[in-house]
Specification:
alpha/beta, 18 strands, globular, 15 helices, binds ligand LB5GJZVW, binds adenosine-5'-diphosphate, 15-stranded mixed β-sheet
């Protein structure tokens, strides 16, 4: 069984959807479960909210997830982080990778955020988003983990304890045996991690074969899709879509794509901006937003509450209130609002943004999810295991402009 440790909830549903689409029976758990695994599965994805926590906390959560997965039958482990390598000079990708390697008594792994279907490719160790380098893609303006360098070797070396090497494109296309040989050479030269180039899916297919016996693999969801294909032996997936019912959209991502998606949706449905100042100063602010959502639940499309702003406005807000204070106030407000709406009878939640989705799901508190049909690559419909609730957790930059309306048009 494959055990996945995902550093946020959108990332967890991203990888879970690719595992399922490629034939593995997969369950996504909300945090580290307290009891034993209750159903048969080929892969378990544990969703953490550890991407931007203090390093020690991220390590502690990730090791707890590892121990649970080991106890419940996992034999190979996958640390899932963002396809845009969201992290800071402190971590958490490097320190968590180190902690997992140490705990597993391993001394080597790979670094593979590539996800070609969503435009994330790696060449000569540089991460591209579409046709531009990571640090020119808009990710340099990320509210919590601004990415100002696209070189994965440098990024990893800054935050991890070992040395990072490269398996370049010219070697990857020579096939899985050759890639394994490159890993051995890098190990002998004292490298602890290898960034592996992947400019399209065929390199991920090769890499999936090269890591078949690697105890710990790290990366985005792209490689996992091919690992699933090689493990699955053609198992079938019964994809579901949600039932039409009371729906709300909560958007806390400030990514380039989410800004476009919010603008597109505002032309179709009722929308309300979540004002940081009011979130910080008014005790009744959640109640005000709740009342507004309830008034708009009967429209053709669901109401949207959004904190999403373009980079200049984000900078002003962060300067005025402090980046951490602003983002915590927004996350808290979304979480409380989601809880109120669930109690009121909203059954379908569409959330945008990794941190935002993570806090909302933690507040709603389900054990875990079954994985349904993909709305866009990496964004599946989810059904809570223990309540008749459906969710779509959209990663910041995933989906096309019309994502929010498309998601609802799938409901039956
Ligand atoms: N208007 C805003 N001002 C300040 N911070 C914001 C604003 N809107 C969103 N944020 C914060 O930015 C962060 C966005 O992160 P996240 O939800 O992970 O989105 P993404 O998936 O794009 O990374 C959240 O912590 C959110 O609260
Ligand atoms: O790998 C990815 O890009 C996503 O699965 C992911 O982790 C995105 O994170 P957010 O943009 O913070 O949602």
């Amino acid at each position: 069984m494959l055990g996945v440790i995902a550093d946020d909830f959108t990332g967890a549903s991203d990888i879970a959807s690719f595992l399922v689409e490629n034939g593995l029976r997969t369950v996504q758990m909300n945090g580290v479960p307290t009891g034993a695994l209750e159903q048969e599965a080929d892969a378990i994805v544990i969703s953490l909210k550890s991407r931007s926590n203090p390093v020690a906390e991220a390590i502690q959560q990730s090791l707890a997830a590892l121990h649970w997965l080991q106890k419940n039958g996992a034999t190979q482990f996958y640390f899932k982080y963002c396809s845009t390598f969201d992290s800071t000079a402190e971590g958490n990708i490097g320190p968590v990778t180190d902690a997992l390697l140490d705990e597993l008594n391993e001394d080597f792994t790979i670094i593979t955020p590539a996800l070609p279907v969503n435009g994330r490719t790696i060449f000569n160790g540089y991460l591209f988003v579409g046709q531009v380098l990571l640090n020119e893609s808009g990710m340099q303006n990320h509210p919590i983990t601004p990415m100002t360098d696209a070189n994965l070797l440098r990024l990893m070396d800054r935050q991890a304890k070992g040395k990072t090497g490269l398996v370049p494109y010219a070697d990857v296309i020579k096939g899985a045996d050759h890639v394994k040989h490159c890993f051995e050479q890098l190990k002998q030269q004292g490298y602890r991690y290898a960034v592996v180039d992947a400019v399209d899916n065929s390199q991920l297919d090769v890499l999936a074969q090269a890591v078949d016996e690697m105890k710990l693999v790290t990366g985005g969801s792209g490689l996992a899709a091919y690992m699933a294909q090689h493990k699955a032996q053609g198992k079938q997936h019964q994809a579901f879509v949600p039932t039409k019912n009371k729906t709300v959209i909560l958007s806390g991502s400030c990514s380039v794509m989410t800004n476009k998606q919010v603008a597109d949706y505002q032309a179709k449905a009722a929308s309300k901006w979540l004002d940081v100042e009011q979130a910080l100063t008014r005790d009744d602010y959640v109640e005000t937003l709740f009342n507004w959502v309830v008034e708009h639940l009967d429209g053709a499309y669901a109401p949207l509450v959004y904190a999403t702003v373009p980079p200049e406005q984000l900078k002003q807000i962060q300067q005025k209130f402090g980046a951490d204070i602003a983002s915590q106030a927004i996350e808290r407000t979304f979480a409380q609002l989601a809880g109120r709406l669930r109690d009121y009878g909203v059954t379908n939640f569409i959330t945008a943004g990794g941190e935002t989705s993570s806090i909302v799901v933690q507040q709603l508190g389900f054990k875990g999810f079954r994985i349904g049909k993909q709305i866009a690559p990496g964004v599946p419909w989810l059904a809570a295991l223990d309540a008749p609730i459906y969710l779509a957790l959209k990663s910041g930059n995933f989906g096309k402009e019309a994502f929010f309306s498309q998601a609802q048009e799938m409901m039956q």
